[in-house]
Design a protein that fits this description.
5-stranded mixed beta sheet
């Protein structure tokens, strides 16, 4: 009976996705952007998430100290904690951010910061469905060594290790779910969600942790409902996704990220997910992962798209 129920739910999900695509709300393939199926394979499920409390995954990034681990978190309504998962969906650890609130964590990224040679996690409390918050926050701290972490252990990130980067949009409150860091410049990029042509902003390095930062508007994209993004660890490739598409850019050697994002992307094959809001490059660049929230009673599955 349970198998039949799950099959019915899965069918309903596919019908729902199909209807959403026919409405042209940004979840459907954008026929004006060419599909390139020669770069990466279609996503292959690596396994369901073992830790069932990860039910609204809204950010994903590959660990730098463990090539088989990724960081993720829940979004609005979640607690102030990060989850470390394995590349087959295993439950490795829970890290609580001491003294930090989780209003609406929507993305996470990992890259350089103020100390040379240190990899920092950046947690974006940036969601704002009704565009009512004047300030957004990023929590930055050194990535802990997770090279040998396993077994679902519970750990803490001490508040003294966490820096808060407060920022404001230059042109009114915005809802944003895609946050990326350029490993070459340490600049942080944002792509909004709800505009008919989403807007792009950058927060230049060094970001102040004592004063309110103001973002710089850098352009628009002819897309809608952007929910995730990631710049490759080498800084040469960019992925941005909405609910039904993955967009890909590759930059030239001396090209800036804001310039490459103004050039036409290609679309990559995408394995439909119930509500996919996360994307992350594999540490070695051999492909990328996607992860969905739990929806229609379908458990989240970690997908991997291998470079051809």
């Amino acid at each position: 009976m349970k198998t039949l129920y799950n099959s019915i739910i899965a069918c309903l999900m596919l019908v729902s996705l199909s209807c959403a695509q026919q409405k042209g709300r940004g979840e459907a393939p954008n026929d004006e952007i060419p599909l390139d199926s020669m770069l990466f394979t279609l996503g292959v499920g690596q396994g369901e998430l073992q830790y069932k409390k990860i039910d609204e995954a809204s950010g994903l990034v590959a660990s730098r100290s463990n090539p088989h681990a990724l960081w993720t978190h829940n979004d609005s309504g979640g607690k102030n904690r990060l989850f470390l998962i394995g590349d087959k969906g295993e439950h490795l650890a829970v890290y609580k951010l001491e003294g930090i609130k989780a209003r609406d964590w929507e993305d996470i990224t990992l890259g350089p910061g103020p100390k040379k040679g240190v990899n920092y996690l950046y947690v974006g409390d940036i969601g704002d469905n009704k565009a009512r918050y004047e300030e957004k926050m990023i929590y930055r701290f050194p990535e802990p060594d997770v090279s040998k972490v396993s077994g679902g252990v519970k750990k803490k990130i001490e508040n003294s290790a966490i820096e808060t980067i407060r920022f404001q949009f230059p042109d009114g409150n915005r809802d944003v779910e895609a946050m990326m860091i350029d490993p070459a410049t340490k600049d942080i990029f944002f792509v909004t969600k709800r505009e008919e042509n989403v807007r792009m902003y950058v927060l230049r390095y060094p970001q102040s942790t004592t004063e309110l930062n103001k973002l710089e508007f850098i352009g628009t994209l002819p897309m809608h409902k952007i929910v995730a993004g990631d710049i490759s660890p080498t800084g040469n490739e960019v992925l941005i996704k909405d609910y039904g598409n993955i967009y890909y850019w590759q930059k030239e050697e001396n090209e800036a990220i804001e310039e490459v994002l103004k050039t036409p992307p290609v679309r990559l094959p995408y394995e439909d997910e119930p509500q996919g809001e996360s994307i992350a490059w594999k540490l070695d660049g051999a492909g990328y992962y996607t992860l969905s929230e739990k929806r229609f009673e379908i458990e989240p599955v970690l997908y991997f798209y291998k470079r051809k």
